[in-house]
Give the backbone structure.
Amino acid sequence: MAEPGKQHQQEGEFRQEDPDLKSQDINELPISTQPLPTILQVSQQEDVDLKSQDISVPPISTQPLPTVQPHLLQDDWNSLPMQVQNSYCPPGLEYLTSVDQLLVHQKVELCEALIGYETCNKFVIKNSLGQQVFYAAEESDCCSRNFCGPLREFRMTILDNFNQEVMSMDRPFGCGPCCFPCCLQEIKVYAPPGCLAGTVKQNWTLWKPSFQIKNAEGETVLTIEGPCWMCSCYHDVNYKVLSNEKEIVGKITKQWGGLLREAFTDSDNFCISFPMDLDVRIKAVMLGACVLIDMMYYESPNNSALS
């Protein structure tokens, strides 16, 4: 066994030898005399490597989705909701995907109230909060309005809040509801304009008013049935919307507008209710059904010769 003193001495000698060994190893390393490559040479070498690898990057085929901040959606009530996947929504009607109720208010025309001269009807379409969503304006000639009355043909243009046409309705001339089952009332809805979204056709009945809502392929999707008494004196009048299984899925309500409004004007208010997940195009056709019901049963005949 080594003595403690010698052991410390050996360790000390070993500590003294360590710097010499390290310095000797460093001095023995070969020193390169070649200059270091510049940044330009490195970048050129990387370009050559990429070209030699022949990497083909496919082009961007899809547009990235925009980032919408939550506070902007809270401030703007008429922001566009997310569309339901695998369902077609006509451009301009995206807002209808997130609502299950619409209010249709006909504007009061002073010329009609004072002298009885029939003018083109105008409607303001609002959401359940009373905020305007669309604006509808009738296009018809003076003779048909004052001689044919509610039976007249017309074209209805629906505009959004940016004054862009998003939907249109065409109603041909038809006979009254009490005639034989020929030339009954109908209205066609186009969304976008020029593309048929659906049709509302009147069913011939003796008592209750009845309508069929058809899609663009002519298939009956919904049925509307009204009451025997369509007068809205001091109460609302409900038109039930039925599915093909005869289940109530919505309604069109003619709202009581007050004694003066009902007595001296033909300006009416309606409320349309439908399922939230209903096809947007059928929602637009239900809006056309509301316009047709207003024209048939609540439009003043005035001095028309055919009404």
Remarks:
- Residues 6-17, 21-27, 54-86, 303-307 have pLDDT under 50 and may be disordered.
- DSSP finds seven helices and twelve strands in the chain.
- The radius of gyration is 39 Å.
